[in-house]
Amino acid sequence: MKHMLRLLALLSLPSVLLAAPGLTIYNQNFAVVRDTLLLDLKAGVNEVKFDGATLHLEPDSVILRDPEGVPLQILEQNYRNDPVTQQLLLSLFEGKEIDFQVHEPNKPDHVLKGTVIRSGYVPHGGVAMKRYGQAYAMSQMAMGGTGDGGAGQPIVQVDGKIQFSLPGVPVFPSLGDDTILKAQLAWKISVPKALKTEAELGYITGGMSWEASYNLVSPENGNDLDLVGWVTMDNQSGREFNEAKIKLMAGDVNKIQPQGMSDVMAFGMIRKAGLDAGAAPAVTEKSFDEYHLYTLERPTTLKDRETKQVEFIRAAGVKSEVIYVYDGLSLDWNRWGGCNNRGRQLSEEFGTESNTKVTVLREFKNSKENNLGIPLPKGRIRLYRSNGTQLEFTGENEIDHTPANEKVKIITGNAFDLVGERKRVNFQVDNANHSASESFEITLRNRKKEPVMIRVVEHLYRWVNWSITANSDPFVKTNAQEVEFHIQLKPNEEKKVSYKVNYSW
Q1: 199 and 330 part of one domain
Q2: Residue 369: exposed, middle, or buried by beta-carbon count in 10 A (0-12, 13-18, 19+)?
């Protein structure tokens, strides 16, 4: 009975949640949580506890305020995230004798008494390990912990003998006086007069992330695409959010991370597109500061340790183009990056490395005319093509944040039936005139049954001052040290492209 009363006392909240929680999730393993609490405060100092916090709350990010501006003087704030577990209770009974319920096959259950020598519980988690350094981590591990707030190997004495395991299920006489069942925020709040208010509570928490992903489907013949996008939300915060109002932030939001944690990266999402005119959007989008904020129109329950997916875009008839690119230069910058300019100018070997692969690039414009025209967040794109009866996977890659009216370019792999060869046929240096010249020959072979166009990319890395003095085909200068030849090939055709470049310094 005493045990049950203790449980009920722990579960009762001095502050009550009034409204559905709000969440703004970033794909950087953190989120902003917003709750509304009913505070019934008397004049003077009040002790308030809230048992609905997350396990990864950042205590110095907590904001508790009255929406009408009535000052709440917070004298003290305490945050605990060590909810009661078997290992925690074992640690409270170290050096004491407790009962262990033993179950053995084909034998009646019985009780053994044992003394807990070491519980194996370490109260400090991985963040503390990183914050206080290797020596601290090693000392905590020596206590028997795993370094993540979990349990190591307990030591129990039974009938005068020591064993490194529990002899059965521990049965505790009562919960410790200082245990909690959920992560808890506690305040000492001073107010000049009695106040009853629906206070706003906000804080940043780790353990939550989201990301976008896209599936592109093309028919057996042709390059029109059907696009379906998903947003995947992951909740590892230690708290369930029931019927939450969820928003997602897109853009590269700067946030300082503890040492040893990953760099900041933010993803976003987009509204639903390409649906029937009468369909309500599942997600709406608006610009927010330098970012884009996306709102799920329906409240969503996000359970702890749950991964939830929501379809957030559907578009049909997206016009795309398949582009073949032969970039025959295979330069090893680990070898040449340390050379000075003079070394690269005069070396006969520089720029002669090559490969035979022709890259497949899928490209489409993110415009309203192309049934899109909305900010596309960073995410993985998978491509499928119908073979007449079913879909086959044909490649995947990632895109960065892509504004409206910009092109989306996806490298999906290498072409099987297209081959390129690149070789240098001449190289001369004229030291008296501070110049050099070299000539290249690129061979392209199309083993497909249909014609193709291949973009041949050539890098003029030897020096910044250059001019092409002879060329077999027209070229386009794409940047200060790069040109492209656009070569049409008939089925089963082989073609050679050649050019000569002069450098001067």
Answers
A1: no
A2: exposed
